[in-house]
Specification:
This protein is α+β, with helices and mostly antiparallel strands. The chain contains 14 helices and 27 strands. The strands form eight sheets. Strands 10-9-6-5-11-3-12-13-4-14 form a ten-stranded mixed β-sheet, with helices on both faces. Strands 15, 17, 18, 23 and 24 form a five-stranded antiparallel β-sheet that branches. A two-stranded antiparallel ribbon has the order 1-2. Helix 6 packs parallel to helix 8. It is globular. The chain starts with a helix and ends in a 7-residue tail after the last strand.
């Protein structure tokens, strides 16, 4: 008995678990998400945007070169929070829309619920975008002790409004453990990036050091609307002589976020928490193609499954890492953070009161801390199967025809359809794709079946999917439909295309040369994986909208569960 107590005491003193390969024991975790940030839009990737704090953290930490996310906000955030791929949670369909009765299903054990049951103090700051139509879907009822920010996907940076109504709140539990939702109309006119940073610093300064800390710092920057204080636009972009007004405003948004992240790290230092803290940084998807972001040298952007849409700028930083100052080229996916944090927390899901669904992520601690293996050889980037739509489902996710101009299709997907991109409707080759100024509008990938996967260095597109061009370096001349680096002419117009495309990302990271015809065996091998993922896919039903979420100029949940 005495020897057992001594071992436990030694384990606590060293903060290490020998059985886990010197894995730190319940470190503080700061998970930082940028929103719609371009792959190139950091100094350590050659950007002209000023990001000295991100540059320092990345260069002193580990740059994650092959960190994959989903192509839009809600799918990435739900995958992060659940540790499960969007094909399991239903978020393969895209973003949650305002007024939509949909969210991360309540039987999913969120990352915060898992960490909280292991003694973590949990605080959410910034953007949620995983559901708001019931109170049970909101962050303070999904494992966060406190939440400060917005439930929806975007807001005015000064007005804090979406569609003219306020969505800025401070949620917490009072001394009697009663839930409080405090709408913060008093913050009108204050720049939300700075508000999120100030809140993060406050959480750190008030943290009870007897508990490990998990903080989810989910900035809305640099998601649209493109807004920044005028004096700071001038301050942060005066050197950007080649850039237009929007690019300069975008740059200021990124630089203000960068400054805030530096202040958060300083707060960790000041309160003696830095040595026991893991910092993870990522964008939720690539920058918007055709907007002020730069995904150079990658192809495509937000909403596309090309590298510029799903390969996020990302790094980790911590004194707890064994090896630092290099670029890690292992395959990683946003679902991996759940499993990794679960390992750090020493969670035992089989003993938890709430059932833990099968996780899709890998524990990548050895990869990020010691450049060991990530365990991954493939990443499903996304897929859509029309036969999974309009079926009876636990919660609704599909958009009715009246919400957009859709040519109706009924697609029976097989290997040949995947190869040819053929739809079975009479007018399948003439479905229009119209680019929208609203970044969160219904997008054309909802109309088509597709399967996109990376295995090792091979990347396959099959079915019918959104294809985009390239961004010039630092977005100096906008976007093009030819490769500005190699002068390669791209003959397909931006929009929906069909058929198979195969790229060797080792030799062709810009996704220029389709080598499907010369590698039929690789194509067959990758398409054969479709059946496996189809078996794991979640059925979905009709999307439902309501006007009841708006009352008194404020957004709030409107459905009461039994």
């Amino acid at each position: 008995m005495i020897s057992e107590l001594f071992f436990v005491l030694l384990l606590c003193l060293t903060n290490l678990n020998p059985a886990s390969g010197n894995r730190p024991f319940r470190p503080n975790i700061i998970m930082i998400l940028a929103d719609d940030m371009g792959y190139q839009d950091v100094g350590f990737r050659g950007s002209d945007i000023l990001t000295p704090n991100l540059d320092r953290l990345a260069k002193d930490g580990v740059i994650l070169e092959n960190h994959y996310v989903m192509p839009q906000c809600s799918p990435t955030r739900s995958s992060l929070m659940s540790g499960r791929h969007a094909i399991r949670t239903g978020f393969w369909h895209g973003n949650i829309k305002p007024r939509e009765e949909w969210g991360l299903r309540l039987d999913e054990t969120t990352m915060t619920e898992m960490l909280k049951r292991n003694g973590y103090a949990t605080h959410g700051i910034g953007k949620w975008h995983c559901g708001l139509y019931t109170w049970q879907h909101t962050p303070a009822q999904r494992g966060f002790d406190t939440f400060f920010g917005l439930y929806l996907g975007s807001q005015g940076y000064f007005s804090h409004k979406n569609s003219g109504s306020l969505d800025f709140r401070e949620d917490f539990y009072d001394k009697d453990k009663k839930f409080v939702d405090n709408m913060r109309a008093d913050l009108n006119g204050k720049y939300n990036t700075n508000l999120f940073t100030d809140r993060a610093i406050s959480v750190i300064s008030e943290h009870d050091s007897s508990k490990p800390l998990f903080m989810y710092l989910s900035y809305t920057a640099p998601h649209g609307p493109i807004e920044a204080p005028k004096d700071e636009v001038k301050q942060f972009s005066k050197h950007m002589t080649k850039s237009d007004k929007k690019r300069k405003e975008y740059a200021a948004m990124v630089s203000i976020m960068d400054r805030g992240i530096g202040e958060v790290v300083d707060a960790l230092e000041q309160h003696g928490m830095r040595d026991d803290t893991l910092i993870v940084f990522s964008s939720d998807n690539g920058g918007v193609f055709g907007g002020p972001a730069s995904n150079y040298p990658l192809r495509g952007g937000k909403k596309s499954l090309q590298e510029g849409g799903v390969r996020a700028v990302s790094f980790v930083n911590s004194p707890l890492l064994k090896k630092t100052g290099y670029t890690n080229t292992n395959l990683h996916h946003v679902t991996d953070w759940y499993k990794t944090f679960q390992g750090l927390a020493r969670d035992m899901p089989e003993q938890a009161e709430k059932y833990q669904h099968t996780l899709d992520g890998f524990d990548i601690w050895d990869s990020i801390s010691n450049n060991g293996s990530s365990g991954r050889t493939e990443v499903l980037l996304n897929m859509r199967v029309s036969s999974m739509v309009n079926k009876k489902a636990p919660e609704p996710v599909y958009v009715p025809d009246s919400d957009y101009n859709q040519a109706k299709t009924s697609i029976s997907l097989d290997d040949e359809a995947l190869k040819d991109g053929v739809l079975s409707s009479d007018n399948d080759q003439n479905v229009p794709y119209e680019k929208s100024e609203n970044e969160d509008s219904i997008v054309a990938d909802l109309l088509f079946d597709f399967f996109v996967i990376r295995k090792d260095n091979w990347k396959l597109f099959s079915g019918s999917y959104l294809l985009q061009g390239w961004t010039h370096e630092n977005n100096w001349n906008g976007t093009v439909t030819c490769d500005p680096l190699k002068g390669y002419q791209f003959y397909d117009a931006d929009g929906i295309v069909g058929g198979v495309r195969l790229y060797n990302l080792n030799t062709d990271p810009r996704e220029v040369h389709n080598v499907a015809e010369s590698n039929p065996g690789v194509v067959e091998m990758l398409i054969s994986k479709h059946a496996h993922y189809l078996a794991e896919m979640t059925w979905t039903g009709n999307r439902i909208y309501s006007l009841e979420g708006l009352e008194g100029g404020k957004w709030h949940p409107w459905v009461t569960l039994d």
